[in-house]
Inverse folding.
């Protein structure tokens, strides 16, 4: 059986921006912020966060699949449009949207259902049973929960936080996986790599009792 490669998976030869592509921009408010030397409109989200640009190898020349890593731009695309992280088709149905969650390293137990914020895009009804069966991580991880979510809202980004060097000439990475909520002021040195959604109206589904309405949605 060929490996199931999720749409959001990263590849070893799709790389983030080089330091030489980044510059320091001083907008009207006088606070230096991270920017690209050659800016493009799609580089920033609605909250003004700068997103990592990724290199794309020519068709058919993708490197090794990195199953435990998501490509920032494909993750952002799926999270923004509620697209399935496996097949990139719409994952939203009239019954809700399915998210598959698990306990992340460092977490002290399962999060209460009304407190879940996630960077894992949803899964469509067609891909859900296949993923639960064929993804070795989901098969083996005991904390996996399949959640039916009535509503979700985009809530923040995470990525690499940079600080300005003392000579004000370049950006120096200072923190990985820093989270920035859309309810708080933006970090001027954030290079966003993942988009988050806050889940609302969450119910847990039995993994062997997925409602037929969800499975037939696509
Ligand atoms: Zn799918």
């Amino acid at each position: 059986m060929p490996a199931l490669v999720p749409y959001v998976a990263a590849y070893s030869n799709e790389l983030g921006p080089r330091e030489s592509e980044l510059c320091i921009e001083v907008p009207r408010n006088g606070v230096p912020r991270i920017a690209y030397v050659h800016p493009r409109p799609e580089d920033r989200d609605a909250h003004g966060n700068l997103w990592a640009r990724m290199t794309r190898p020519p068709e058919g020349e993708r490197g090794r699949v990195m199953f435990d890593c998501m490509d920032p731009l494909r993750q952002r695309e799926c999270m923004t449009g509620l697209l399935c992280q496996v097949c990139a088709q719409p994952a939203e149905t009239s019954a809700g949207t399915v998210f598959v969650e698990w306990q992340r390293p460092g977490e002290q137990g399962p999060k209460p259902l009304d407190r879940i914020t996630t960077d894992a895009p949803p899964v469509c009804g067609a891909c859900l049973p296949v993923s639960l069966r064929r993804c070795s991580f989901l098969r083996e991880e005991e904390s996996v929960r399949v959640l039916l979510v009535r509503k979700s809202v985009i809530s923040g980004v995470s990525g690499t936080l940079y600080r300005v060097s003392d000579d004000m000439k370049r950006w120096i990475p200072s923190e990985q996986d820093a989270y920035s909520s859309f309810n708080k002021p933006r970090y001027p040195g954030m290079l966003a790599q993942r988009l988050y959604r806050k889940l609302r109206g969450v119910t847990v589904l039995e993994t062997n009792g997925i409602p037929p309405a969800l499975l037939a949605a696509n």
Remarks:
- The CA atoms of residues 7 and 88 lie 6 Å apart.
- The longest helix spans residues 72-81.
